[in-house]
Structure formats: structure tokens, C-alpha cells
Amino acid sequence: MTKELADYAVKLVSGIFLALIAGSAQADPIVIESPPYRVAMLELYTSEGCSSCPPADRWVSGLKTQPDLWRRFIPLSFHVDYWDYIGWPDRFASPAFSDRQRRHASGQSMRTIYTPGFFLNGAEWRWRGGDLGAELEQVPAGTLEVAINDADLTVRFVSELQHGDLRASVALLGFGLETRVKAGENAGRTLSHDFVVLSVEEAALKLEGNVFKARLASPSRKVDAQRYAIVAWVNSKGSQVPIQAAGGWWELM
After folding, report:
1. Architecture of domain 29-249
2. Quick check: helix, strand or coil at residue 89?
3. How do beta strands 227-236 and 211-217 pair?
4. 48: nearest Cα among 96, 15, 94
5. Separation CA 241–CA 246 (nearest Å)
6. What is the DSSP letter of 29?
7. What residue spans define the domains of the chain?
């Protein structure tokens, strides 16, 4: 064997070895798991077209440094589209998020919806800028797990409580997002956002033995953010009240 051919063989084997290592690393899923007690889900309904929303947005952003994040509570910021007509279309807004807030309000017999509006575990929550800790209770709920691969993710929910038909939702959250608002009530301001819901996918959970399971596509990152997180929650069919939630940072390679 010539020296050139020997060098080529060494490079070829080295390349295959590195490719196998990279492939095995990509195959290892990211696993996010809840504790056995209920993780509170705090939903903020907000809009870049609402002049009253920035203080609530800033307060929610401050929660990302709290030690109980992901373990006792999970904030989600849903941007609604019903203020777009006053001059500034919110790039994070979705009619589906506005509909979600309306369904929450209907379940609470609320006469109207508004921003900033909060729901804690599916119930209207009056925000006064204080601490969230006093609102949290450790109620047994079961364990929710999300295993994220490159192409898809698997949701597993184990609970000793009796449940009927269940559905799983998985949201991609974006952090460190900024918008220079040029029109509407916040014209001339630069707004900063965290916990922004960028997408939500839903699927029915199927009972296999004593475990509820669902498989969904991994969320696509159509919005560039400084950081991302994955949040999953489980609710009964026909209800938006979360039974259990799990969340964590989604670190990208």
C-alpha cells in the first residue's frame, strides 16, 4: 500500500468514526420531566399594541431568574391579535391565542377579555405585581415527561389519579426577543419579551398499560431568539385547565 493510499485510509476511518460519534450524540434525546406534584402554569395574554402590557411583560421576564422556575411554576406569554387593528400588528400574535383566552374567559363566566390578562392553572388571576410563591400549592398530579429528538418528541404521562380522554400540548418559547414598535399605543418604544409562545402543537394521549403517550413533531424554530424552552402540558379533552405541566430550557447545538 502506498503512503498516499494509507493516509487516505486513515482519514476515511477517522471520518467515519467522527460521524458515528456525532450521530450517536444527536440520537440522545433531551428529556424534560416534571416533579410528581402539580407544576403551576401561569398564562399571560398580552400584545405589543397595548400600552398597559409592558409592565406585565417585564414582571414575567423577571421570573426567568427565579429558582422555582420549571419545578413549581411555568410562565407562558401568549400574544393576542385583537389589538392589531389600532395600528401595530404584533408579530408574535395569533388568532388561536386570542381564541384560547376567550375559551378561558367563557369557562370563568367573564364578560370580556383584556390585556394584560393572567390565568393561573386555568383560572383568572389578578396580577398586582407581587410574588407568585403564595399562589403555589403542592398537589399530587403525576409525572409528565417530554423526550425531544431532532425529528420528533414523545410525551409520557404517569398518574395514579383517574383520567378520561387526555390531550397533550407542546409549546416552543422564545427568550430575549425585542421589537422596535413604530405605530400604535407603544409607538417609539423598544419592547423586550421572554417566555413568548412561538408555536403550539397538540395531540391525543393514548393509554398504553399505565402510561399515557403521544408523539409529535419537534417544533420548528422560525423565530430567532437568544434562548428557547420547551413546555408541555396535559389537560382533559374539552378543557383548558392543565392537569400537569413540564418545562425546561432547550439548548441548541
Report:
1. Sandwich (2.60)
2. coil
3. unpaired
4. 94
5. 14
6. P
7. 29-249
> pLDDT tens across 41-89, in order?
999 999 999 999 999 999 999 999 999 999 999 999 999 999 999 999 9
* Distance in angstroms (rounded) separating the CA atoms of residues 36 and 143: 5
d(CA 27, CA 31): 12
How distant, in Å, are the alpha carbons of 95, 135, 179, 237 from that of 88?
15, 34, 11, 35
pLDDT value for 20: 44
Give the cell for residue 113.
Answer: 377579555
Q: What is the pLDDT of residue 5?
A: 41
Between these two residues, 189 and 132, which has the higher pLDDT value? 189
- Determine how β-strand 143-148 pairs with β-strand 30-33: antiparallel
Those residues whose C-beta lies under 8 Å from the C-beta of residue 198, and which sit 6 or more positions away, are 92, 171, 172, 173, 174, 219, 221, 222, 223, 225
Q: Is the pLDDT of residue 149 over 80?
A: yes
Residue 153 phi/psi, 5-degree rounding, is -140, 155
Q: Where are the alpha helices (DSSP H) in the chain?
A: 3-27, 54-62, 95-107
pLDDT in tens, 194-206: 999 999 999 999 9
Q: Is 211 helix (H, G, I), strand (E, B) or coil?
A: strand
